[in-house]
Amino acid sequence: MAAISKAEPANPKAPSLIGAAGKVNAASPAYATVEYHRLRLMIGGGKKDDARKELDQVLASKSSMPLSSRNNLLALRMSVATNLDEFLKFAQRSASALTIDEDGRELPEDLTGTEDNSKQKTALLGKTMFDDDSTKIFNESMPLNVLKEAAQNKTLPDYLRRNLVIATWVKAVLLDKDDIAQAMIPDLQALVPEFKDLINQYVLDGTPQARNSRRCI
Questions:
Q1: pLDDT of residue 112
Q2: d(CA 187, CA 151)
Q3: I need a labelling partner for 156 at 20 to 30 A (CA). Which of 16, 20, 49, 75 fits?
Q4: Cα(76)–Cα(207) distance, rounded to whole angstroms?
């Protein structure tokens, strides 16, 4: 386990480590860690199709691995997604704990307490969320037209689509992509009602030129 967790795909010992790791029983306490690194090395070594197939099998099994370990496997599966639907499916993770890092200790909140917001925190634990890896792609790498497709993908829960809808519309406005901005208005109206005044003004301004003039003012 120590060796495979430190190995890189280019390491000449990687194939033998992958072979040895494949023999670890699923009941072993080391299984989740070893399996993650085995599949990581397979992906890094160019065996993406094989890794994708095995990841699907592991994720579909009723394994009792920790939620954090499952999230790591979901991250690997997202990295080898073959289309947008797959990317969005495996981008969703369930938090194993919630924390507000006010003191820098990164300790999870006590969800069993009697504080007023404990129910809200508990409810969040039951929802899937986007993690850092997918958020970075949404923010920095995904083309606007693909971001629009993601925001309009009805397989996502509305609370996740809401953030994507806002991001897509704001980017479209700032980049003068009027066709995409206009296309997002129905979703904005449905999922972000507090944007009503902004949307109305955007529509009233009429043309991209008028909207640019208002931004300059």
A1: 54
A2: 9
A3: 49
A4: 44
Number of domains, the chain: 2
175-191 pLDDT, tens digit per residue, is 989 999 999 999 999 99
Q: What confidence tens digit (pLDDT) does each residue in 113-149 have? A: 545 556 666 666 678 999 999 999 999 999 999 999 9
The answer to whether the beta carbons of residues 92 and 130 sit under 8 Å apart is: yes
Is 13 within the bounds of a domain? Answer: yes
Take residue 74 and report the two structure tokens written for it: 């979901």
Q: Which of 62, 81, 100 is the last residue of a domain?
A: 81
- The domain of 135 spans 127-217
Helix spans in the chain (H): 2-6, 14-21, 31-44, 48-60, 67-79, 84-91, 118-125, 132-140, 144-151, 158-174, 178-191, 196-205, 208-216
DSSP state of 10: T
- Number of Cβ within 10 Å of residue 35's Cβ equals 25
DSSP 24: S
